[in-house]
Every structure is written in C-alpha cells, then in structure tokens.
Amino acid sequence: MSQTLLRTPLHDRHVELGARMVPFAGWEMPVQYEGVIQEHRAVRTDAGVFDVSHMGEVMVEGPQATALLQSLLSNDLERIAPGEAQYTLLTNERGGIIDDLIAYRLGDCRYLLIVNASNRDTDFRWMKEREIRGSDVTDVSDEYALLAVQGPRAIERLGLQPAKAFTFAEETVDGVEVMVNRTGYTGEDGCELLCMSEDAVALFDAVLARGVAPCGLGARDTLRLEACYPLHGNDIGPDTDPISAALGWTCALGKEFTGVEVVRRVKEDGPARKLVPFVMEEKAVPRQHMAIGGGGEVTSGTHSPMLDVGIGMGYVPATMAGVGTELKIDVRGKTRTARVVKRPIYEREG
Amino acid sequence: MAAAESYPDDLRYHEEHDWARIDGDEAVLGITWFAADALGELVHFEAPATGATVTKDASYGEVESVKAVSDLIAPLSGEVLEVNQKVVDAPETVNEDPYGEGWLIRIRLSDASEVDALLDVSAYKNVLAES
Predict the structure, then answer these.
(1) Distance between B14 CA and the closest CA of chain A, angstroms
(2) pLDDT, mean of residues A246-272
(3) B8 touches chain A (CB under 8 A)
(4) What is the CATH number of domain A272-350?
C-alpha cells in the first residue's frame, strides 16, 4: 500500500526527524514529530514549519485568464492587483464548494492557484474543461514544494521584513529563491514559502537551522480549528453552499460565476442551517459526524491545546446558530453540553 | 515529557495493551507504554464511576488524544474501588508515567482465577513483536 502513496521531496527528512508518517489524501505525510500539542504550542508561541508540498498548484494564464477565473471563482479578482492574493471558492452549478483555495495574482493575466491536495485533480480537470480561447490552465504541482512557516516569530526567524497579509514577493531565504506568501492556515502571523521541488531540502534545512520547529498535519488541524478555518471535505464540500458555511464574504454576488444564482437565493432566503464554532462546557472531545441535538452534526472536532477543552464546528438549524446557544452533542451515547461561540475560537494576542 | 519505552516485569498484561498490578484480591489497571505512545498525548479520560462493575475483555472507559479515541479494555473483572483523579484532571500523566502516576483505576477482583489467563511480560513483548 505504501508504494502507491505519493511522497514530497522532504519525505526522507521527515523520517530522519522521527516523524510518524500517515496516509493523507493519497500522500505519505508527517502527522507529528514530537507530539501534536507541543508542535501546536510552538506555532502559537514561536514558530513552526509544515511541509505542505502535497497541496496542488495550478497556473492560469493568457489574455483571457482573468475572464476565465472570474467565471469560475466566487471572489472578485478585480479587487486584487499583481503581488496580492485572495481567498476564494471554486463552485459548482448547485452553488456547492468544489474547493477553497488562494489565488495569487502574479501579473495582470497570470495567476497561481494553491489548492487542497485532495482536490488537485478535480480542480484541474474542472478548470481545464472550461478553458476559453486565450486562457491556459496547467497543473504545475510537481514542480513546486511548499513550506508553511507560521507563528509570532516566524517572519523574524526567517530574516524577512513584515508585510501585509495576502501579499507576496520573490525573495531569497539562505540562498534559496522563494515566493514568500503572507498567507497561512493557523491564525498566526507567518508565511508560506513556495520553492522549486529540487530546492525543498535545502530550504527546509535552512528553516530548521533558524530555530523553527518541524510540525505535522496533526497540529495543522488543531491550529486551523482554533482559528475556525474550514477544512474542505469536513466542514465544506460540493454539497454545502458558501452562505451556510459562513463564507458569504468570499462571494462577489454582483458578478457571474458558476452557481451564483443558487448562492444569491440562499442569501436572500436565509440559510436553513449554519456552520457554527462551539466550545464544550463538559469534559469531552467532539468528533466529526457526532449528532447535535435538534438536527445538527459535528463536522470537525478536537481538543484545543490552548484552551484545554473540546472544540469544534458543525452545522445546526439557523435558529440554533446564535452565539451563546447551548448545544447538546451525542458523544458515543452520552449527551454533552457545548455552547456556540463567535469566531475565532482562539485569537492570537496583539 | 513522554516516558521511555518500558514494560515492567512485575505486571500482568492483556493483549489489548492494558496492564494489571495484582495485590491480593485487588488490582490496579492502566495502559501500556505502547498504547500511550500510539495514541499520543492524552487529553481526556472517560472514567467509570466508583462502584461500577468492569468485565474482563469488555470496555470500562475511554482515553482520547487530539487525534484518536481508544476503548479501555478490562484485563480482569471486578468492582471499581477508585478512579485516579490525577489522570482525570491531567490525562497526559499517562504518557509521562504509564505504570506509576498514570494508573487509571483500582478494582476489587470478582474472580481471582482470571489472573492466570493474563500475559507475563515476555508473552506481552511477543504480542508487540508480532503486531
């Protein structure tokens, strides 16, 4: 089975560092090195590095690149200039979310899309089939490696200057040419470093030498959940619309994109159910697929290393979505109380 | 800090990675280093009530890490005399000291002959070698 799993350029480094490797979205990835909680705290207090080279990169270019992406993605690319990035959704005809991604505007007519590993092929095929004259969609995932360096000291440890969130620039880190993206999935300051695959080991070693702790996918999940970032496949998917998922802010409803009429209708009518973050009021760890009393379901759940309580997200009827609402969660047959909180569950200081 | 791998000679083991320290008609139960390491740092111990009955080879509670939940399998049958409150309050104690401070419950045995069916340390190490 392990032979069928894909490996990032850093696979051998992870093994040498003692990582526990697990299958994830067809890849063999490190879930932890020393421990999820320790790695989580490193990112909240100092800096951690995640190998996210399994994520996909799709290049879209040509004189009609903007027109193509404006018709496929929910957010409005006219709002960003070259050097800026935007969180956006690839939607289907039902207004469902094929993927959530970040679009980096490299030039007026050139974009790099960084997409979820599990959706790389689906996204690429979807966009390739819809190419218009004057646009070219290419899957360039194999050419690049991606390291997320996150935490309050991440930028300082890399020797970089502070910059605005959702901007990017070409820079050099210890002799390695990288695209430094001021984006992330942890709720902390930091960046994501895109480099050529053949430079990945040198870059990773340089980042570790700068005192950044290696972190696995386990901590990546607990960090994103504390920050209330949805995970595609858990909290959002082809059958969930952006409005119910509290992602209406990513939808430019004044323009035309796939499924926009459905999204507009949900917005006008009000969603029947909403994705809400919650915190347990009793000792228990909520998990995906647990039932929430009144007709809801947990879509992500874990133990918050920072708050030391169970936390999660789930869909509940809109009437139960207000902050402060008490939820009853079925934890393997036992009813446990939680409360709806405002986003994010954990907010960084300062 | 997680403890180093060890399996004390004076304990009896169950193949579901539980241990028992027998003391007359009582026993203290816990999970082995292997189980604690496989789960990762524990964040929750769903303990049985004092006075509850536990049954050999059946679940008497759960332990959870950030990523996973595991049933606790009773190596012996009996009545729960005491739950380790320290582990309820600080579940990571199990990772730090699985055979000492990280014990889980103390029971009064209902059938002392069940002890004979448990594994000694060398037999348990064979289970680990085959897994």
Answers:
(1) 24
(2) 98
(3) no
(4) 2.40.30.110
